[in-house]
Amino acid sequence: MKLREGLWLVGSGQFGFEMTHRLDCNIYLIGDGDEYALIDAGAGVDTELLLSSIASTGVPASRIRKLLLTHAHADHAAGAAALRQRLDLWTIASKDAGPWIESADIDRTSIGAAVFAGVYPPDYLYPPCPIDETVSDGDNIEVGALSLKVIETPGHARGHISFALDEGDGMSLFAGDAIFAGGKIVLQQIWDCEIEAYARTIARLNDLRIKRLYPGHGPFLLSAADRHIAKAYDCFEKLELPPNL
């Protein structure tokens, strides 16, 4: 699904557009014509379907060179190992999440708790994936002529990062699970989901005046994303919780 010039939604599951496996998050392909990157990897259950969707964009596989991961949860990162191997991708994660993805840490990725809760089937596997580069707040990731700025956005998960792109006419944000359309968030009963950190993240994103929002689930926003983020910010300011996705 082409969203803008040089940007496609290539994967999305049951909480989005049902394009690929139901457990997948939203997966984006972005580039400048010479080089491209995938943002998030999905759950890794049906890699062939995801690869078919990527191929349908017409972007040569040889030009897709990087994989950017927002956080270590399985629906975003468990597909990384297969994509890295099949497309020979330079794989990037945060300094916190990188080691958990590399080791497929059952506790730190919360996959053990998620399987126990029935979110994933009992036989679900989270393959370990080598991480080629770890990044921190303020770092820039170059994708051809594009420069994506790393923003640390904890709250939903420890080690969560988002990627901001200044497109001249406004800021775009690849938010992972930090914020969603309608000002929604995702709070879960897992070890690293922290309300206070979430409130600080939303306050920071509110200051950025984001125009376009590309979240990890649900609909994307091609304009006025700042109004949606402001809804979540206003809830926290009133000592309330924003609506949960």
From TrEMBL:
<keyword id="KW-0378">Hydrolase</keyword>
<dbReference type="Pfam" id="PF00753">
    <property type="entry name" value="Lactamase_B"/>
</dbReference>
<dbReference type="GO" id="GO:0016787">
    <property type="term" value="F:hydrolase activity"/>
</dbReference>
<protein>
    <submittedName>
        <fullName>MBL fold metallo-hydrolase</fullName>
    </submittedName>
</protein>
<dbReference type="InterPro" id="IPR036866">
    <property type="entry name" value="RibonucZ/Hydroxyglut_hydro"/>
</dbReference>
<dbReference type="InterPro" id="IPR050855">
    <property type="entry name" value="NDM-1-like"/>
</dbReference>
<dbReference type="InterPro" id="IPR001279">
    <property type="entry name" value="Metallo-B-lactamas"/>
</dbReference>
<comment type="function">
    <text>Counteracts the endogenous Pycsar antiviral defense system. Phosphodiesterase that enables metal-dependent hydrolysis of host cyclic nucleotide Pycsar defense signals such as cCMP and cUMP.</text>
</comment>
<feature type="domain" description="Metallo-beta-lactamase">
    <location>
        <begin position="24"/>
        <end position="217"/>
    </location>
</feature>
